[in-house]
Amino acid sequence: MTVEIVVYTIAAALKAQEGGADRIELCDNPGDGGTTPSPGTIDVVRKNLGIDVFVMIRPRGGDFCYSSYEFHAMKRDISQCQKLSVDGIVLGILNPDGTLDKKRCKELIDQARPLKVTCHRAFDMTEDPFQTLEDCIEVGFDRILTSGRHMQAVQGLDLLAELIKRANGRIAIMPGSGVNENTVEEIVSKTGAKEIHFSAASTTDSLMTYRNPNIAGMGSEEGAEFKLRTVDPDRVRAIRALAEKAAQASA
């Protein structure tokens, strides 16, 4: 069982490794579902982790239909990732009609080699998941991160199982979204997944002892600047153990 942890900070990356993750997906901006982190963050994480580091290549939140300017930014971000010796990247570009933008995805994948490339949950926003599966294979993606076209993977089990069956080893299908202690056994046992993606998220308190009483929150959530998102290593270990138990039981 391959365990990938999505992380948004340097501290969280270190905690994911401590918990026994095989790979991290390094992102920025959790509120937007993940965007490209800074080169400085990528560099520090890469130099301090001994596990695989995959980096999100996404220039903004919102949809996955990008302008030519955004596309060129993605190409430059991939070049930076190659210089910083990461192991893989995560991306996805769609056409307005809900199909995979095969031309531009292939251009980015070809540029990225020999890095591994994952198609992220843009997959879940396409009109035809089975055609998109074949398109992802055609352009060279190594894996697809998907929730089975639902908010959480446990709601998309039938589609996830069918995707894994149709993929037949040609591409990895990695369930993600809502994978936790309560859902992972069912997800693994009912889909046959060999890889899982989750956050094992927790929060820690800020080290700040002074807190301005006139400002309740810098952003939309009150007090959020004093809650630091990280990863709980114990949760990583626990969820992995449950996943491996389910995989062995269904073998």
Automatic annotation (TrEMBL):
Gene transcribed to yield this protein: cutC
Gene3D superfamilies: Copper homeostasis (CutC) domain (3.20.20.380)
InterPro entries (UniProt xref): CutC-like, CutC-like_dom_sf
Superkingdom of source: Bacteria
Protein name per the record: PF03932 family protein CutC
Compartments where found: Cytoplasm
Family listed: Belongs to the CutC family.
Keywords: Cytoplasm
